[in-house]
């Protein structure tokens, strides 16, 4: 694929109802990870759909990795068990709240980008 400039340099495309529904599907916590992965695998969809898919996959993978590391640490530690489980619940709550916040932003027609995290997702998952 060509080396294209970031999506922020393009004028916004006219929103269609199907496009907005797909963006909402991609941002559903945990469940949206799989349609996002399928969209990126097939390289189909608008630039906006691909960008939201990258963000969804990065958010989901980051949460899953953090969840597994904290759960493993809680299972193997005697002293820090409760602290790690509390951190795990904060991480999970944060992931769900950020996803719901992004869903509301898409519904309102505002930007779905997260400072720092969206550029990280673009850099990591762009081919």
* Shape annotation: elongated
Would you list the SSEs in sequence order as H and E? HHHHH
Distance from first to last alpha carbon: 7 Å
Structural class: mainly alpha
Radius of gyration equals: 16 Å
Strand content: under 5%
Q: Number of DSSP helices?
A: 5
Q: Give start-end ranges of low-pLDDT stretches.
A: none
Query: Mean pLDDT score, rounded?
Result: 85
Brief rundown of the structure:
With 127 residues, the chain is mainly alpha-helical.
Describe this structure as you would to a colleague.
The chain is mostly helical and 127 residues long. 69% of the residues lie in helices and 0% in strands. It has helices at residues 17-26, 33-42, 47-76, 81-108, 117-125. Helix 1 (17-26) packs parallel to helix 3. The longest helix has 30 residues, at 47-76. The radius of gyration is 16 Å and the shape is elongated. The model has no long low-confidence stretch (mean pLDDT 85).
Question: Key terms for this structure?
Answer:
127 residues, mainly alpha, 5 helices, 0% strand
How are the secondary structure elements laid out?
Layout: H1 17-26, H2 33-42, H3 47-76, H4 81-108, H5 117-125
Helix pairs in contact: 1-3, 2-3, 3-4, 3-5
């Amino acid at each position: 694929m060509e080396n294209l400039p970031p999506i922020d340099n393009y004028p916004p495309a006219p929103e269609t109802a199907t496009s907005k529904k797909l963006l909402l599907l991609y941002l559903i916590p945990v469940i949206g990870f799989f349609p996002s992965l399928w969209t990126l695998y097939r390289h189909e969809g608008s630039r906006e759909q691909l960008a939201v898919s990258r963000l969804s996959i990065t958010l989901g993978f980051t949460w899953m990795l953090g969840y597994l590391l904290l759960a493993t640490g809680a299972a193997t530690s005697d002293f820090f068990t409760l602290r790690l489980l509390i951190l795990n619940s904060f991480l999970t709550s944060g992931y769900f709240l950020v996803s719901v916040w992004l869903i509301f932003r898409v519904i309102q027609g505002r930007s779905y980008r997260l400072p720092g995290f969206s550029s990280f997702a673009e850099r990591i998952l762009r081919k």
